[in-house]
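Researcher: Re-running this chain for the archive, since the previous output was lost when a drive failed. Same request as before.
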Amino acid sequence: MAQQSILGRMSQMLRANINAALDSAEDPEKMLDQMIRDYTNNIAEAEEAVAQTIGNLRLLEKDTQEARETAVEWGAKAAAASRRADELRAGGNTAEADRFDSLARQALKKQIQFEEQVGTFDAQIAAQSEIVSKLKEGLNGMKAKREELVQKRDELVARAKMAQAQVQVQEAVKSVNIMDPTSEVSRFEEKIRREEAKAMGMAELASSTLDSQFEELEGLAGDTEVDARLAALKGR
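Model: Regenerated structure tokens:
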């Protein structure tokens, strides 16, 4: 019964549709982690059941071999008793010959009993061997399924990290579009242009003032010459 129960659980787990379960899961990564833990526990339980079944099979095989050897021994005893009975009967000792023939019959009965036991054990060994084969096959299938789960889990985690990175990049790009740093640069550039224009205006203004001073100086020089000529006229 225990072997049939383990086989049933193995079959149920091997038929499980991982992709369908993932599609309906709210948190696929957590679900896969739980499935891996469940498979690991079930594999350990299945390994114990398989080991116990194999142990029982080996004990049964040993008992069968012992029963087969015992049957041979009783057959040898029956043959020895029968020969002794023949020898005694040939010597005229009928009573003792009958006793050894009776022992031969008892030995043959024992031989038959152990041969029947061997037949029963052989049938049980065949059945147990089939169960062990199925258990091993199911156990290997569960181990392969667990590996598939581990790979799915690793793939899912990698994809989730990749998707998260892509989201962060998209959010960064969106933020750049909303707050375009080039607009700040443009405003700064415009400020510099205004400062440059102001400096140019001040330079031009300073240049105009300097020109007017020189013009005034030139005018004063012209008046001095006029006064000098006027004085010269008066002196004459």
